[in-house]
Design a protein that fits this description.
alpha/beta; 2 domains; seven-stranded mixed β-sheet; five-stranded parallel β-sheet; 19 strands
Length: 514
């Protein structure tokens, strides 16, 4: 029985949900408020013609690992640099590299601190046989019964030894593992991809997970830009008969007899539907949901949802590659400009206190080193972001100046290469995508009190809502941020399971009446 289903939001979670529903024969309409689909997975030429920049998401280890993408068979050419990431430690060329190859990573860590590479190798060899179970458990709906049971059975007695990692900070985990603050900075630098300070509980698991994925799948990206991923999803959706409509903001979700009945667009058009999957952030969801759609406690939770640090994003057109002193940084896909462990912690702490960091920790992407489609011959793009206050006290030019000073400190001569730049402040990021409140790329803080069943609330963490026919997905829903499509897939599966249950109940009722 085909049903009319609206998917609100054409970010990757919405598109993954729509694909799963369309594949089951449902009539799917994706409604996107922006002028183009993709949400945070888009590309543009924001500096100069011929220079392709990724707007937000730039590297896709979770996409490569996620079961939600495994069976989509998207026609993409993935670029996967052998050196996934380098953490630069000082202006003299000190660096530690995350290679896809474990032995090369061990050598890099060992060169930084005696024993650090050996410790990393032992941990990776412990986790490696369980890599698929670990990924499945991390990206499963709650509770991850099958994946969790499989993982516990395989780990056996090691489970108790490894359990504290889930709660440890990246600083404490790195120090305990490596016995060196310099090597610990390499691990903690991956936490800058979220709003997690190296001192924050739970940041260890986040950093360890990203670096572990560097060995399992690398840190790949689509040739030609992140927008190619969105384009492939949209094309497959249209092949399956679904419609993607942009410039179509949903103003209201209507209900009848306690069930979703229609969506009403900002222009006034009413579209009758049997169900809806909503991927916008909590505040927007509350504003469009019917009155008393959620219990008072859940509505308060959504209205008070705590967003994380803001982000300032810079894109550069360069006349040549960045002149990092260290050889591995000059070939890495990603460079973490973080310095010592204390500098990382200070940057996140200052941002959390509402001050633009004096020495901001930076995530730097070097796509064009490995993808020549990104820039004209001989020239390069550079992707840079920092976690900052949601409302920085500095102007755009002042923020750019401080970030460029930081890059110049670690790569003297960088500024001479800049041909053009574009900047997106936290306010600009939110204006482009209102779900990224204050420039928070994770659509909600990743601290422990907003994880697992509390992302966003026990009643919603499994993608169902108290309003029948309304389902939720997005970075603010478990398992959280990253381009993995897990909550989009989970929302679609919940809807399909409820639909099967409804058909069974209706069939029984008809037989009873007959």
């Amino acid at each position: 029985m085909s049903r009319r289903i609206a998917v609100i939001g054409a970010g990757h979670h919405g598109l993954v949900a729509a694909l799963r529903l369309a594949a089951r024969g449902h009539d799917v309409l994706v409604l996107e408020a922006a002028g183009t689909p993709g949400g945070a997975v888009r590309s543009d030429e924001s500096t100069l013609p011929g220079f392709t920049h990724d707007v937000c998401s730039g590297f896709f280890p979770l996409t490569a690992a996620s079961p939600a993408f495994a069976d989509l068979d998207l026609p993409l050419d993935w670029v996967n640099p052998p050196v996934a990431m380098v953490h630069v430690l000082d202006a003299g060329g000190g660096e530690v590299a995350l290679h896809r190859d474990l032995a090369a990573t061990i050598d890099s860590l060992e060169a930084c601190a005696a024993g650090a590479g050996v410790a990393w190798g032992e941990l990776m060899r412990t986790l490696w046989p369980h890599r698929h179970a670990l990924i499945s458990a991390g990206l499963s709906r709650l509770p991850p019964l099958r994946a969790g049971a499989t993982l516990l059975a395989r780990l056996r007695t090691r489970a108790l030894d490894l359990a504290p990692i889930a709660l440890a900070s990246s600083a404490s985990l790195g120090r305990e593992l490596f016995g060196s603050d310099r090597a610990a900075a390499w691990l903690a630098g991956s936490g800058a991809h979220a709003d997690l300070s190296p001192q924050a509980a739970g940041s260890g698991a986040f950093s360890l997970g990203l670096n572990f994925l560097g060995h399992v799948v690398g840190w790949p990206f689509p040739r030609g830009g992140a927008g190619r991923l969105t384009g492939a999803l949209v094309a497959k959706l249209r092949e399956r008969g679904a419609e993607v409509r942009c410039d179509a903001a949903v103003a209201q979700i209507e209900a009848r007899h306690g069930r979703v009945a229609a969506v009403r667009l900002a222009g006034g058009q009413r579209i009758a539907v049997d169900a809806a999957v909503c991927t916008v952030s909590p505040g927007l969801l509350v504003s469009m949901a019917p009155e008393r759609a959620f219990p008072a406690r859940v509505e308060r939770r959504l209205r008070r949802w705590r967003y994380g640090l803001g982000t300032v994003k810079l894109d550069y057109a360069l006349s040549g590659p960045v002149p990092w002193p260290g050889p591995r940084a000059r070939e890495a896909g990603v460079v973490h400009v973080g310095g010592a462990l204390g500098e990382l912690a200070s940057s996140l702490a200052q941002a959390g206190d509402g001050r633009f960091p004096d020495r901001p920790a930076l995530v730097v992407g070097q796509h064009s080193l490995h993808d020549r489609t990104r820039a004209p011959y001989g020239q390069h793009t550079l992707y840079v972001y920092a976690r900052v206050p949601q409302q920085p006290e500095l102007s755009d030019d002042e923020m750019a100046e401080r970030i460029e000073q930081r890059i110049e400190q670690f790569a003297p001569g960088f500024r001479q290469l800049v041909v053009a730049r574009a900047i997106r402040s936290p306010a600009a990021i939110e204006a482009e995508n209102p779900s990224l409140r204050g420039g928070d790329l994770a659509a909600g803080s990743c601290e422990l009190d907003q994880q697992l069943v509390f992302r966003p609330a026990p009643e919603l963490c499994r993608c169902r809502t108290p309003l029948r026919g309304l389902y939720v997905a997005g970075a603010w829903v478990h398992p959280g941020p990253g381009v993995h499509g897990a909550s989009g897939r989970a929302a679609a599966d919940a809807l399909l399971a409820d639909d099967r249950g409804l058909r069974i109940r209706l069939g029984r009722a008809r037989r009873y009446r007959g």
